[in-house]
Amino acid sequence: MLIHLPIIILTSLHPTPIADTVPKFEIARECQFEGGLKEDLNRCMTDETQAREQLQTKWTQYTPSEKKRCNQVADTSGISSYVELQVCLEMERDVKQEEVGKM
């Protein structure tokens, strides 16, 4: 009977997929890559931070396939952007809503 206990425990645990959390991007690195004046850097840091915070509140609303696709889009240049990720996910959502509205 005790032999089955680990199996029972493992099957009762809820897996936490990686897509359940917003990916971690290096905001400072991304903003420095863009270059520009100090004001531009500050604006970039603010925009990226706000986008990350908004994504954290809405992350569970997106499907795993949307997250995967948009994460690839946000990382096309090798420098990831929360703003690009957020825009992509919002566009995916809008397209889906349009398709539902046409039915």
Compile the SSE list and pairings.
Elements: H1 5-12, H2 27-34, H3 38-58, H4 64-74, H5 82-102
Helix pairs in contact: 2-3, 4-5
**Uncertain regions spanning at least 5 consecutive residues:** 5-18
Distance between the termini: 54 Å
- Structural class computed from helices and strand pairing: mainly alpha
Helix percent reads: 55-70%
Question: What can you see in these coordinates?
Answer:
The protein has 103 residues and is an all-alpha fold. The protein has one domain (22-102). It is 67% helix and 0% strand. The protein has helices at 5-12, 27-34, 38-58, 64-74, 82-102. Helix 2 (27-34) crosses helix 3 (38-58) and helix 4 (64-74) packs across helix 5. The N and C termini lie far apart (54 Å). Mean pLDDT is 82; it is low at 5-18.
Quick gist of this model?
With 103 residues, this protein is mostly helical. The protein has helices spanning 5-12, 27-34, 38-58, 64-74, 82-102.
Tag the structure with descriptive keywords.
single chain, 103 residues, mainly alpha, elongated
